[in-house]
Amino acid sequence: MTYNFDEIIERRGTDSIKWNGSPRGVKAASIGGDLLPLWVADMDFRSPQVVLDAIAKRAAHGLFGYTVAPAAYLAATREWLARRHGWEVETDSLVPVPGVVPSIQIAIEAFTHPGEKVVIQPPVYHPFRLVPIANGRQVVENPLTRDGTRYAMDLAQLERVIDSDTRLLILCSPHNPVGRVWRTEELAGLVELCAAKGVVVLSDEIHCDLILGGNRHVPTGLAAGDLADRVVTLVSATKSFNLSSLSCAAAVIPDPLLRGRFTRQVERAALNHHNPLSLAASEAAYRQGVDWLEGLLAYLGGNYRFMVSYLKEQAPALEVIPLEGTYLAWIDCSRTGLPDAEITKRLLAEGLWLEEGPKYGTGGEGFQRLNFACPRATLERALARLVRALAP
Ligand SMILES: Cc1ncc(COP(=O)(O)O)c(C=O)c1O
Question: Does ligand 1 come within 6 angstroms of the Cβ of 249?
Answer without folding.
Answer: yes
